[in-house]
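Entry 0007
Protein: ABC3 transporter permease C-terminal domain-containing protein
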Amino acid sequence: MNCLDKLHLKNHDLTYYIKFKDKYELEKQAVLLKDFISDKFKFTADIKLYKDKHKDDINREHAFTTVLFAITGVVLLYALLNIINIIFNKVNEDRKSYGIKLALGASQKDIFMQNFFELIILSLLSSIIVTLATLIVIYIINNYIFSFFSISINIYIICVFICIIFSLLISFLMLRKITKLSIMEIYR
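Output (structure tokens):
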């Protein structure tokens, strides 16, 4: 946990602020704190009070993280449904142009590849825009409202990767279905 704690030692008229650089569990924090006190002041510290004080904070942080993950999951599902809807509408709008291209002699493979790459570019462009918008919002929140939001690059990459994979899969399935149709079936 990236925290700033005030450490006041009774026998010494000193106050220390300790900031953990990495996220640690409560037990690890307690050990680090105990080692710090032992090294700095050459006496053994009882850190039970530290554990008791921060147990509620850590439980609250876990609950907050769970809520954020649930919200992220709902937003990701909503984004996936929107991607599916956009791809479905795009393919259905272009049905007649597929028929015209087939009638003029284009192969089904050419039509498929042209539209598939168009949808790939659309997916990648939307992912880049969403990434930039998210980073800007997190920067604003961290600097002006709160300072505890952070973005795990691994989770963010996984979410973007899931959206891109689903958009490619849906694009592939929709275009494959359309290109299998004959010219007469496309115009119906």
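Curator remark: The two ends are 61 Å apart (CA to CA). Helices lie at 26-41, 48-93, 95-103, 108-145, 153-179, 183-187.
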